[in-house]
Amino acid sequence: MAFITVKNLRKVYKLGKEKVYALKQIDLEIKRGEICCILGTSGSGKSTLLNMLAGLEKPTRGDIFINGVNIAQLSESKLARFRQENTGFIFQSYNLIGQFNALENVGMPLMFKGYPKAKRDKLAAKMLKLVGLGKRLRHRPNQMSGGQQQRVGIARAFVAKPKVVFADEPTGNLDTKTTDEVMRLMVRMCRKYNITLIIVTHDLEIAAYADRIVHIIDGEITSIEENTSIYSPEEDEENTSISEVKST
What we know:
- By secondary structure, the protein is α/β, with parallel strands linked by helices.
- About 30% of the residues lie in helices and about 25% in strands.
- It is built from 7 helices and 10 strands.
């Protein structure tokens, strides 16, 4: 059974008297724990589709079921609560709060869930150690490299063990070596916690990490490609995390 089901999805924007069809008719199913890449060039509709799936925008028409809930029919307040309880986000520009240190940034999703500070800090520290930043807990974003900031973003996305994580061009600001490390890290976290990951990218090298690649052009899915990820966590030594030495 599909974890995410999209039926007859359409998104139309009105620009004066003209209509722009960002998504024309999308039908898609995504399994629980699957790493799904939505691949397309700029203007293809891939980011619009991600926003629809994440509940950040309302569709013009159609249904989006996540774990049996049709998020397209939820009110704004119920949708906000659904996102809080079920989703995590990883952004290209990191979106960290500058005046917060790594521990505080990672703990934010737990704060919104009402966790007391001591428990937030404990869980956030554990997650930061897992992504190789155990010695950077008190560092602020301006004291970290781009790769380190994105690791903080990954830790924040996964700390509350969401059912699905959405990643919008998550390696767009990173060099090749750091991109590989970050992608491996995201795959490992998803496999470890059985979390569905939906990645939007224009990069075929990023798509190679996915289980399935959804090709989108001009607001339409043109093909869906089954894929064997180029990385399996079993390649790494058992029960080890990416070391601090590799942090960039």
